[in-house]
Prior knowledge:
Mean pLDDT: 94
CATH class: Mainly Beta
Distance between the termini: 29 Å
Shape: globular
Number of domains: 1
Largest sheet: 11 strands, antiparallel
Amino acid sequence: MFAFTLGVQAVPVDLAGYNPDCGIVVKADGDSLTARWNTPEGATVLTLDVSSNGALVQSVAVASGDAEPVVVLRDANPVTVLTVGERDLKKRGGWTIFFDRVDRRPSESGQLNLKLQSATVQSVGQRCFIELDRLEGEAFSGKLRFTLYAGCGLIHVQAIVQTQKDARALLYHAGLTCNSEGKSVSWIGLDDKAHRAYAAPRDAAPQKVRNRTIALETGSGGIAVFPPPHRYFYPLDEAYNLSFTWWGAGFMDRVEDFGIGIRQDRLGDRRWIPWFNAPPGTEQKLGVFWLPSRDRGGKLFDRVKAYTNGDRFPALPGHKTFTSHYHIEHTTRY
């Protein structure tokens, strides 16, 4: 989880850049910062603890239709782990070269820690940003951002960080942590069937899934966790399923608590492994989506797939779909 600096008072919340016309209702009340907005399912309520004395996410509640919101997750923390290596800038192309093998050079992995100092709420159009300062780890620093979208059930959680060190390339792994008691973990397996396991405090391990999605289920609903479908994947020669999700306790020996999330294999397809560029002074927006719902199992995953057209290019009458630089191995199902 993100580590916190203990305190006795809530940090200041700056609402100067917030306009309720954005469609998300935000209220600061003592130690809590609450956001509520309408979604296709009904409504979602996100409550954050800005006192640094407990889990950052006090609760996520979901209302079906006109019913009252029901809490589907309590006392959770976002988590982001960086794996930072070195780009070979002497090669042709420098920052833009594909033919690099970052995985063969020394790298370090570490968790980003939230030392909560302030909270800022801003709105742009139909979006609302809740930004928490300050996030630090592995020579990177910045802020944690929750982006909420009016009329949409997604919660976009991003670590927005930068470094001043040169020649850095990175991978990131993200998700959430919580108490495992009374919960289950679910996913769609490579057999295209829904799978469910008790969220026992087992050692964290990678999990092969369809649609890059893993979910935590409670007695009242679930919350699916998945990456931005394109931004999370750096270029590789092959399109293998490299177990892009994880669940359990002790993830990468960096996250003590039980959790679920997304991950990258540092060795990729064992060919050219460029990772992601992180030039000095540039913002790295390292994001993961949460989708809370009263649904569980297959119905929850159907909600996720609605955002990617079921991982298919939908047919558009009168139009043809073209793609560029298409490797035949990309047709492999994964």
